[in-house]
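sanity check this record:
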Amino acid sequence: MIPWLICLMLAGQQEDWQKQEAVHLQNIRQVTRDFVRAGEGYFSPDQKQIIFQAEERDTGNPFYQIFVMDLDTGKYRRVSPGVGRTTCSYFSPDGKKIIFASSHLDHDAKKHQAEEYQRRDEDKKAGRRRNYQWDFDPYMDIFEANPDGSGLKRLTDAMGYDAEGSYSPDGKHIVFCSKRDGSLELYVMDTDGKNVRKLTHAPGCYNGGPFFSPDGKRVIFRSDRKKKDFLQIYMINVDGTGELPLTDTEGVNWGPYWYKDGRHIVYAAADHSNPTVRPNYDLWWMNVDTLEKTRLTFAPGADVLPVFSPDGKKLMWTSTRDGRQPAQLYIADFVPPTDKHQRKAND
């Protein structure tokens, strides 16, 4: 085909998906650029900053570290130790503390870093593209710090993986994922790490990515209890009762996050029903009462890990957008879809 004609066709396709996204996502802008890759960002309570994970360039560490960025100036600083793996950072509701998970206390952390670089070199030489796989590092623990990274304090010290933590709306508790009893279950603890109690009971399954509802009464999370590695979204009361699946598809549904009204969530999903087709992740909006959902993104790349600003006016997520570039963070003005029953009432 004539090169200029191919360019016109690709430009037309891009215009189409951008128009589809503009219904609910307006003024989309990329907010991270200076990293090999970046993602899983969260807003500060005053919405002036974001905290996120990213791989720095030329540091000798191929794993994510945690950064805080000022949205007005774009200035950022690393707030994690810089050694080992880190993930799942979050601001406290008053903005005075942050939490994140880190494996920097592992004596072999730097050895693992060198091994990862070696694997990447081997993959590059062989022309291989590794599928995404999360390593549930047994040295991962949850740490508290000041927003500038000072005052680092360890909150968990049980054997096994402890990560994926987030605060309750009143700032009194943290819900997190732990493998302390041999299975990846959800737990709730006080913000000082005391009074740990198990929330989920699904031995042999993964339960993770939990967030308290805006009223603090429920927790949204992801689990592969239906089929290994095929995540679905669940909801549970904070006392462990009323567990309820919200998705049931031939695919992967993950990264759920609450909207400010406590009735809706946003999450990422992809169809895995056809093993010959590479699944593409997009963002979806769901009413947790009716299970009605609306697709938000249509880009050819992966769109995952969506979160709302506290006022619900902004949506931030991790994306490769065109599918060819490394993942970075994007922010857009959010226009909520109207539920079907609301549309009927307004007609």
Remarks:
- The first strand starts at residue 25 and ends at 30.
